[in-house]
Design brief:
Immunoglobulin-like, 7 domains, 4 helices, about 50% strand, mainly beta, five-stranded mixed beta sheet
Amino acid sequence: MPRKMFVIFGASNILWMVFTVSQAFKIETFPENKIVAQIGDVVSLTCRTTGCEPPSFSWRTHLDSPLNGQVRNEGSNSTLTMDPVGFRNEYSYLCTAICGSEKREKGIQVEIYSFPKDPEIHLSGPLEVGKPVTVTCLVPDVYPFDRLEMNLLKGNHLLQNKDFVEPMERKSLETKSLEVTFTPTNEDIGKALVCQAKLHIDEIDFKPKERETTKKLQVYISPKNTVISVNPSTRLQEGGSVTMTCSSEGLPAPQIFWSKKLDNGNLQLLSGNSTLTLIAMRTEDSGIYVCEGVNQVGKNGKEVELIVQAFPRDPEIEISGLPVNGNPVTVSCRVPNVYPSDRLEIELLKGESIIGNKNFLENIDKKYLETESLDMTFIPTTEDTGTVLVCLAKLHIDEMEFEPKQRQSTQTLYVNVAPRDTTVFISPSSILEEGSSVNMTCSSNGLPAPKILWSRQLNNGHLQPLSENSTLTLTSTKMEDSGVYVCEGINQAGIDRKEVELIIQVAPKDIQLTAFPSESVKEGDTVIISCTCGNVPKTWIILKKKAETGDTVLQSRDGAYTIHKVQLEDAGVYECESKNEVGLQLRSLTLDVKGRGNYQDYFSPELLVLYCSSSLIIPAIGMIIYFARRANMKGSYSLVEAQKSKV
């Protein structure tokens, strides 16, 4: 480096050091004296020094209240941040800086307010011409509200002004409002509501000090003057068509809805167009149709009644039941969907004779479709078969052009006769021998000719169907075929029945002749001689005692004969004779009666000697014991009897 340049650089350094040492210790703040802050914002106060490196900083309020903020020191700067700023920060803050033995102080006044949002406009309901509505203008979270002024304008016209000059009892955010009630008119359409709010704090510099909100008026007119036009007419022929057009006044323009009123009063929606067209109409399309004009604030309706051809169909003939000879029957002549029914006349004829007539003058006030009827009761006879019933309906409306004005229906009368005089012919007889055949033929009178049904009556009384032919044939009959057979004559008018009993006879068989308790008894015992003969019905049973001098018929009861204290003379042959109209069968038995004096013969000394003389002593002893036991059980013993076979 050249010497000259070094001299200049050294001289400049000396001058800078002299300048720095001579600079005074100073303090300044940002903002300088005062800051205006909106409640809720973030506020920073900065204190800066010059002439000292580094200084010592401190912050306090003039009342030594809490700082309610955060202090940050960086070199010669100190910042107090309040996040968020509120009522607790509305003080004068003092920043103190110390450099060595020197102290400097500087104060900053913090002033707050709240005016954060534009006003809000609220309506109590839609703006409908002619109906009062309340408008509310709100200013939320304002402070200090004693400096607030509000104006509500409709277009350029001031509706109301309000100042809130009442004293504040405490520091707080307040929402203030201004309410005005007015009645919208047609002239209000297109105008706007304007809510203005002003915060008169001239000594504080902040923006905005004025806020406003504008709301364009949407004025409604409820539907009215709803009108319906019908082409060609509200009275129509069945199968015809009709077009109905509806209009309604309102703002905004009403939407048109077509409905039909149901019987329960509810509405059935049909269309959302102004024009409703119905084609190929039927009588059930008759009724009340409703047009409604609808918009956001209301609806208005109009009704129209359509009547589809008042005389659409021929009368209907109904008979209460099957016409039966001699039984009363009611004939009803119905005329459906007629209007006006007070002009209706109904006649009922049987052949060429009028049996009933009716006019319906009492229905003059009814304005809807009616179904009218004439009911007549008479007693048909067989002579009425083939006669024609005629129902004649006349609609006496000479002033109206329509066809036809007279309708009729006919029905041929068929009189039924319930089955009667049901008879059954049996060949060869109702009493038969088993294995033979029988034909049972049934006939019954009635109109129409009765149908024949053969059945058999079961034990429980029910009928078992057998045949639908007039003749019932049974071949190779058995005893089980016996019973009650039923023939029924059946037609639409009733049932008639005839019962016959069929008896199938069988020759006696399976005869059983027994003596109880045995065919061999002791004198003085009681014995019962009984004769039974299977299950053959109507069989005669005869009990006899056989003898050479002649047979004796015993007085039996149900085939049983009892002998009390039997005697020796009661022994002999007994015979059972079972017979019926078909044949007979015999059975016999021999009754043996033992006398009391013969009991010892069954155990004699000679027999004992005979067995003892045998070399078979042990078997003999066994036999002695055996016969002794037999003698004890029966009281006597007979070797001859012991050798007999037992059945």
